[in-house]
Structures are given as C-alpha cells and as structure tokens.
Amino acid sequence: MADRPPRKGRQTTRMVVRQADRITPHLIRIVAAPAEPEDFPRFETPYTDAYLKVVFPLAGVTYPEPFDMATAREALPREQWPVLRTYTLREVRPETGDLVLDFVYHGDVGLAGPWAATVVPGTEFHVAGPGGAYAPDPTADWHLLVGDESALPAIAASLRQIPAGVPAHVFAEVGGAEDELPLETPGELRLRWLHRPDGVSLQEAVRTAFNSDFPTGRVHAFVHGEASAIKELRRYLVYERGVPLGDLSISGYWKQGVDDEGYRATKKDARAAEAVEDAQHGLVEAR
C-alpha cells in the first residue's frame, strides 16, 4: 500500500461544538468553532450556499492520527473510509469565530440527525470544505428562493444579502407550522410556507403563484431540495418561463428513498439527461 501514489483527498478541519439546541421539533442547530482558531479564515466565503462535508468515522475502524481524509483514504480500504454528509453553513460569525450548522432531525432515521441529537458542548468532529457557488446577484430585479428544510440554511443566508427593497419571493416546504423559522432580509420579503401534510408541492405552489403574474425584470433564482421536485421546477422555470441557466442555481440536495452515496452515484446521469433535454429546447449555455 505504501508504494502506491497517494489518492486525492480533502483537507479536514477539527471542530469543537460550543452549543447545540433543538430549535424546532425537527431541526437541531449546532454552533461550532475550529479547534485551531487560525483555521477559521478558510470558512469566510462569498457564497451564501457555502457547505461543509461533515465526516462520520465508521464504528470499529481505527483511523490514523492526526485524522485527515487524505491520510485515511490512503491507509485504509474503501469500505473503511469515513462517511460524508453535506450541510450548508447557515452563518459564519467572524466576531466570535463560530460556524452555525442546522441538522434536520427525524428521530433515529439517517446518520447525521441522530448524531446531532447526541452532541454536547465539547464534542469534537471533522469537516471538509467549504465549497459553494451561489450568492444573490445584487443587480437582479428580483429573487426567487425555493426549497425544503435542506435548503433553508442557504435561503436564510442568501436573504441577508439581498439589497434593500428588492423583492425576494420565498417558497419553503417544512413538516408543519411548528417547523417554520424566522427569515429576515433587507429586501422586500414575500414568504410562502408550505406544510407537507397539506399536500401542495413546491412546484405546484410556484406555478400557482406565478400562473398569471410572473414578475417582470431579471430574476436570480436559487432552487434546491428533493431531486424529483427540483427536476419539475427546473423544467417550469427554464422551459416555460425562459429563465436563463446562468441566472439559476438549481439542483437536488437529496433524493427520496436513496442515501447520500446512492444519490451521488446517479447525479452524473441526471446531469447528462438534463443536457440532452436542454439541447432539445435549443439551450446551449455552458453548464
């Protein structure tokens, strides 16, 4: 193994939990800081969809110390590599050196939610990143932000950067009224909460709201959430409403019935299918 060229890996940062709170029945907010304060500047990013990969070591596996993803992947077979889960930074606090992450919690289901329910101040964990690609364009005439719980951290961060008085249409899907969160913006907020038991999908809500009154001017849109719902929203916005791909940040954060690894494995094929469909509609913009 030592004679093989090193695999590419992600640099990881050791984090320490400062605070953990259940802010709604299905959302746990963790405030954490780099164990080494000099690591904090790498998390200051211009993107409002900045995300981290939270590292979950496998039980029963001994990892090289000090821990790093690249080292772990070089030293161990693939089936023993740590599992990664992606979470958007809701907030970066330069004044305190803290990062804020929100975890959706549905009891013992999944990996990250149950872990988040157990952490206490002093708990250590590792993250890789950040990544990111989107921030609201201050020159846009209006903004559209659409998503479920998985997109709410990015939506909240994005709203804080929308210029004063600029319309911001938000469609947010959650489990119920008890899962709604305060959202604030200098812009003109037009917020619609969708409660999942009511049976109105994000795509239906957006289409109904704009059926005969699609705002004029250039929109900059951020649309993320469950993959199937996002696929239909993409078709509506791009093919029916003519939103240029360059003015649209859109993709599925997750897919119903598929874990993170399985969903990542299908993303390449999904993007290829989108490219074919775009070509059929005469769209040739760079993706």
What keyword list fits this structure?
five-stranded parallel beta sheet; disordered N terminus; six-stranded antiparallel β-barrel; globular; 287 residues; 6 helices; alpha/beta; FAD-bd_FR_type; single chain
Outline:
Residues 10-137 form the FAD-binding FR-type domain. With 287 residues, this protein is of the alpha/beta class.
Commentary on this structure:
The protein has 287 residues and is an alpha/beta fold. 22% of the residues lie in helices and 31% in strands. It has six helices and eleven strands. The protein has helices spanning 69-75, 112-116, 152-159, 202-209, 227-240, 260-280, and strands spanning 12-24, 27-34, 51-56, 83-93, 98-104, 124-131, 142-147, 167-174, 188-195, 219-226, 248-254. The strands form two sheets. The chain has a six-stranded antiparallel barrel with strand order 1-2-5-4-3-6. Strands 9-8-7-10-11 form a five-stranded parallel β-sheet, with helices on both faces. It starts with 11 loop residues before the first strand and ends in a 7-residue tail after the last helix. Residues 1-9 have low confidence and may be disordered.
